[in-house]
Amino acid sequence: MSQTIRLPEILEIARRDGKVTVEQLADHLGVTLQTIRRDLSELAEAGKLERVHGGAVLPSGTINIAYEERRQLNAEGKTAMARACAAMIPEDCAIFLNLGTSTEAVATELLHHRNLLVVTNNMNVANILTRNPDCEVIVTGGSLRQSDGGLIGDITTAAIRKFKFDIGIIGCSAIDQDGDILDFDLREVGVSQTILHQSRRAMLIADQTKFKRTAPARIGSLSDIDVLFTDAPLTRGLQDRCADWATQIDVSPADLPRREGSAG
Fold first, then answer.
1. Which pLDDT does position 190 carry in this prediction?
2. Does the keyword Transcription apply (predicted)?
3. What is the sign of the dihedral through the CA atoms of 122, 75, 217 and 19?
């Protein structure tokens, strides 16, 4: 079967099922796993699919990708960014870690930090940090979003306003080329805005896939961020905007060696 026939059929299956796997497609189309991997890479480069471990998913538009798919998406890049972020977090400080698989990766990199106070509305972050005996964890209240273990809503924002954080670390669903930071859930947007307001230093962790997506709700601008952690260079236009805003850009490719940080 030629590629001109395979690619439309792969997209049709992805639209029907929401995702495709390499093995499933190879069996269905009667071609090798290597051929399917090339097909998926080509569709990803065209923006029609997003690669995840073992396959691909539909790109996000107005509907967010399922949590488990997001966890697999660009996992190596998220780990590299998380290491860079953790290296900038000193010991003996108070931080907030927001929702998202990237902030969960940061929590994993903080397991050897000492004397941290971590406030979070992310049940997954809290569970990760229970393995660090030198970390005090406070979980905000709020409405539990069962799809990803996130706590959101008015109760959450009220709890956050009781603190002043040395560092607030947030994720997002998308970043526009004008520098706007975007998300899908208005309740989550309100939480992120409150975190930024209550933090002396604001950090955003967003891998390269976030610059290829869109989402309907605006959190703020990269001008509100002190440090942006990502895994691929920004466009020249966005780099220039960040320079004007004094927003530091930290690019950590997935193959970057582990950095020596100030802690652990």
1. 94
2. yes
3. negative
Tell whether pTM > 0.90.
Answer: no
Give the separation between CA 252 and CA 259, rounded to whole angstroms: 10
Q: Residues 6 or more apart from 57 whose CB is under 8 A from it?
A: 14, 18, 19, 20, 49, 50, 65, 66, 69, 73
What the chain holds in terms of domains, given with CATH numbers, is 3-59 (1.10.10.10), 72-251 (3.40.50.1360)
Q: What are phi and psi of 246, to 5 degrees?
A: 60, 30
Q: What count of other Cβ atoms lies within 10 Å of the Cβ of residue 85?
A: 26
What tokens appear for 162 in the block? 């009781």
Name 216's Cβ contacts closer than 8 Å, sequence gap at least 6. Answer: 62, 182, 184
Angle between helices 22-29 and 3-17 (to 10 degrees): 130
Indicate the Cα dihedral angle 122, 123, 129, 134, nearest 10°: 90
**Residue range 121-151, pLDDT digits in tens:** 999 999 999 999 999 999 999 999 887 889 9
